Amino acid sequence: MKTKILEKVQFEETEKKAIHVMTNEVILADGTVHPSELSAMKELQEQIGMGPDLIEEARKTTVEDALVSLHNMSYPKKKVLAQILEDMAISDNHLHDNEMQLIIQTFKNIGIGEETE
C-alpha cells in the first residue's frame, strides 16, 4: 500500500470500519485470498489506525452500512478510498474482473464520479 495517500487524510471510526468492509469485499471478489492481500490489509489497518476492537466491530458491519458511511465522506476522502481499493485489488499482482466490477459499483454507490473537486 502507498503510505503517502493516507498521510493526507484522517478517517473517523465509522469510515475506518467501512473501508475495512469494502477492502475485504475486494479481497474476496476473485474467490481467492492471497497472502499478499492479507499483508496489504494488515498494513492498511495499521496505517489508518485500526486496533483489534475496531477491526472486530468492522467485521460486524454490513456492506450496506459501510456504503452509507462511505457515501457520506468528503470528496477528498473518497479519492483516497479509490486509491486504497485499487491498491488492494492489485496487491496480489492481478486485477481480477470481479474486483474491478466491485470497485466500479462501489464508486457508483458512494457517488464518486458525480462530484468535482
Automatic annotation (TrEMBL):
InterPro entries: TerB-like
Gene3D superfamilies xref list: TerB-like
SUPFAM superfamilies: TerB-like (SSF158682)
Domain of life per record: Bacteria
UniProt name for this protein: Co-chaperone DjlA N-terminal domain-containing protein
